[in-house]
């Protein structure tokens, strides 16, 4: 018999769909930016060529000599030399600002090491610094989600008391600490997204007001700088705290550091919450594709289920669950593939135990105010729930599974 190709599983389908959407998103963005910025670039190039020829004609300087001088000026700019007085780039405050942009992956580019030793040290320094900073961002994400969960749970308990579903004298005991007094309750990802979005917007507006007042930028440029910096894009066309002197310079540098630090942490957390919402959209799209693209498979599976009225083996494979009950499946039931044509009393008993356990679990969760369909993989390993920030969000927030 010829082997049929295995159907594309959900993880691979989600990955390919996201890759296609990212490619389309990049193409659309490139088209829009090209249409917006290309005319301005062509006009600026035309003005510069006209200015260059006029300068060469008026001061009687040949174009090759003038271009050589401008190349030297560009090299000086790359080294950090400006016509106006700027603060020293490699004193301790400047170097501290530089390493902060390195480990946070902002990378403005206004300061770069010029020596070979500095470049080699940067490779080693950035390797461990960036890894440690990403770990710090994940730990910050975990703490901020825990704080939001605590606050939202307190508000939820207050609503339950007002509605009479929770006794007025209810108190959290030591056994009910940690995850909380309401068994199975988790904060909604959409509520967390709203709170983090409001906090990020407020932080950006406050920082933009400071940059407008101190740096002299207009408010739109300040907002643009905040987003580019907080999201660690770091173009470097606008960089704060670069003048030689400021009024209340120490206070401004401290405020600049606090705003950048809090902004990067907040936007990182916000990006991870948005990624959960994007994942939900991808799951919804995959379900729509699954319902429309495979009618033959659905017809064959429907005929098979009608022919075999009782097929615990197929039910076990379809649900693929693992519930802690007294009397797990025997080794022969788990080890061999059930055909669905002939069943034994042992298989029927195991199926009934699983169904009863699922029913009891759903009833328990419904009684505690958290009705959900349970679908837990039997063969879990250390990476089954995901790793990194996505795993943190899935473990601590509700409405992130396909069954909801």
TrEMBL record:
Keywords, alphabetical: Cell membrane, Ion channel, Ion transport, Membrane, Metal-binding, Potassium, Potassium channel, Potassium transport, Transmembrane, Transmembrane helix, Transport, Voltage-gated channel
InterPro entries, alphabetized: 2pore_dom_K_chnl (IPR003280), 2pore_dom_K_chnl_THIK (IPR005410), K_chnl_dom (IPR013099)
Gene symbol of the encoding locus: Kcnk12
Record carries keyword RNA-binding: no
Protein name: KCNKC protein
A Pfam family matched in the record: Ion_trans_2
Residue intervals passing through the bilayer: 95-113, 120-141, 189-211, 223-245, 257-278
Compartment annotation: Cell membrane
GO cellular component, one term: plasma membrane
Domain of life of the source: Eukaryota
Domain (Potassium channel) ranges: 87-144, 200-279
Membrane topology qualifier: Multi-pass membrane protein
Gene Ontology biological process terms in this record: stabilization of membrane potential
Swiss-Prot/TrEMBL catalytic activity: K(+)(in) = K(+)(out)
Chief place where the protein resides: membrane
GO molecular function, one term: metal ion binding
Organism listed in the record: Formicarius rufipectus
């Amino acid at each position: 018999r010829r082997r049929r190709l295995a159907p594309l599983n959900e993880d691979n389908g989600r990955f390919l769909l996201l890759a296609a959407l990212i490619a389309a998103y990049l193409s659309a963005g490139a088209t829009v930016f090209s249409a917006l910025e290309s005319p301005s670039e062509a006009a600026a190039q035309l003005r510069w060529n006209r200015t260059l020829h006029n300068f060469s004609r008026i001061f009687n300087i040949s174009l090759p000599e003038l271009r050589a001088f401008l190349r030297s000026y560009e090299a000086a700019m790359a080294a950090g030399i400006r016509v106006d007085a700027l603060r020293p780039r490699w004193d301790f405050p400047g170097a501290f600002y530089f390493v902060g942009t390195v480990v946070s992956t902002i990378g403005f580019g206004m300061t770069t090491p010029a020596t070979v030793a500095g470049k080699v040290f940067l490779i080693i320094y950035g390797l461990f610094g960036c890894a440690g900073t990403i770990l710090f961002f994940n730990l910050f994400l975990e703490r901020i989600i825990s704080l939001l969960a605590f606050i939202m749970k307190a508000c939820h308990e207050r609503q339950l008391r007002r509605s009479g579903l929770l006794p007025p004298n209810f108190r959290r005991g030591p056994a009910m600490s940690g995850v909380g007094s309401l068994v199975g309750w988790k904060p909604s990802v959409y509520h967390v997204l709203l709170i983090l979005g409001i906090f990020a917007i407020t932080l950006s507006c406050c920082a933009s007001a400071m940059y407008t007042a101190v740096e002299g930028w207009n408010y739109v440029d300040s907002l643009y700088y905040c987003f580019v910096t907080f999201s660690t894009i770091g173009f470097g066309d606008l960089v704060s705290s670069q003048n030689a002197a400021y009024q209340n310079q120490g206070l401004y540098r401290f405020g600049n550091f606090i705003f950048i630090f809090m902004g990067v942490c907040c936007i990182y957390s916000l990006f991870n919450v948005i990624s959960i919402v994007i994942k939900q959209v991808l799951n919804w799209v995959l379900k729509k594709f699954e319902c429309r693209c495979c009618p033959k498979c659905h017809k064959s599976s429907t005929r098979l289920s009608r022919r075999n009225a009782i097929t615990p083996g197929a039910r076990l494979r379809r649900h693929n669950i693992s519930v802690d009950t007294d009397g797990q499946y025997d080794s022969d039931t788990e080890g061999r593939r059930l055909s669905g044509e002939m069943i034994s009393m042992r298989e029927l008993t195991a199926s009934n135990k699983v169904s009863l356990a699922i029913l009891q679990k759903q009833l328990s969760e419904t009684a505690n105010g958290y009705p959900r369909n349970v679908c837990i993989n039997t063969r879990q390993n250390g990476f089954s729930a995901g790793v990194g920030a996505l795993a943190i969000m899935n473990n601590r927030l509700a409405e992130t599974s396909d069954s909801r």
